[in-house]
């Protein structure tokens, strides 16, 4: 008896590179490599990253149908090419612009701080995931101000055939709930990581962060020393709030001294920061302005701010003050680091070493939709399919079964050679329990068979 091989891959000539989702060849989200020195991970036990869960999250992240008028997605404010941040000062939503600058999302998983938003109002990535959707300005399903509610969005998504197919493949049934939306989106966001920077190359060769990095220039090593050392030891004390190697924000950090609001007035509630990784692009260009109000336009301005904190403000982090003489008690004087121009330049040069490369172009984090914002083909997962054989010789048959959405029509596709013009498709309708099954001849004389089930919005 000849060997029987089952593969499920998309013929290149059949579908364009975007607009198809192959659930048999998922991107690696769950087991991505990370350096041994990266030890922080805020993934909750109840929602581990899975390849299929993050895939669903990726689709939701890029789908404009999650907004009231089908114009805004999560990716509208968090662009892959900008470290999943926004170059605009304020992001555009369905009803105006946001009240704060959109935060970069890279390496959100690798932090002690698990809360989200500048003011930390969301306790987790899961809690954060649906808040922009329910914001009147951002995506418009607030349930107030004449907006539809999140329940209305869930009803909308439940009527989209592709989501019934995807939720069934991910969760075992087509039910769409806020919890499932949150879980999938959180998995995708936590999967976004960047560990291929110049810093990472040097850190892998060094015994610790304090040792000189062999691949660094003198200026970069000097800047690293300034970053790590406290002010009373000739440094800037940056590591007190942004500890390497993750460069995440200390959960106990308070306001950083910038209290202006995009809407006017004061805003002293901003106590969170994204990771300092990928602050700028590989050519040193910022991914938009820095801080919650995008008021600082360059790393030079950022370093100058911390070098000389303008004033004591409500909720200011005490690490940004110094024992400060008359007329008040210690700690009433803003920080004055007195870094020289060369020291500031070295610090900026070091911060540039934290930028990676892969995260900006890796297809696992890219837009999965076609240029016309469609998903045209969804190939169902291999592990949910069974194949049984009966008969012998010319009577030998293969019965191929899997689970789909009850009463939905799918394409059963088969090939003997995997050449594009040898694939054949038969329309199969799932029964009332969602069972898809098809029986076809399986002569023992053939070496290989290639079978798959797919949902197609267009007939191949």
Write a brief structural summary:
The chain has 460 residues and is of the alpha+beta class.
Q: What features would you highlight for this structure?
A:
disordered N terminus; Immunoglobulin-like; 3 domains; single chain; Cytochrome Bc1 Complex, Chain D, domain 2; five-stranded mixed beta sheet; alpha+beta; 14 strands; elongated; 460 residues
Task: Tell me what the structure shows.
The chain is of the alpha+beta class. Mean pLDDT is 90; it is low at 1-17 and 324-330. Helix 1 (51-62) crosses helix 5 (178-191). Strand 4 and strand 5 (248-249) form a beta hairpin. It contains 9 helices and 14 strands. The chain folds into 3 domains: 21-194, Cytochrome Bc1 Complex, Chain D, domain 2 (Orthogonal Bundle); 198-356, Cytochrome Bc1 Complex, Chain D, domain 2 (Orthogonal Bundle), CATH 1.10.760; 377-456, Immunoglobulin-like (Sandwich), CATH 2.60.40. Residues 267-284 have a biased composition (Polar residues). InterPro entries: Cyt_c-like_dom (IPR009056), Cyt_c-like_dom_sf (IPR036909), Cytochrome_c_Peroxidase/MauG (IPR051395), Di-haem_cyt_c_peroxidsae (IPR004852).
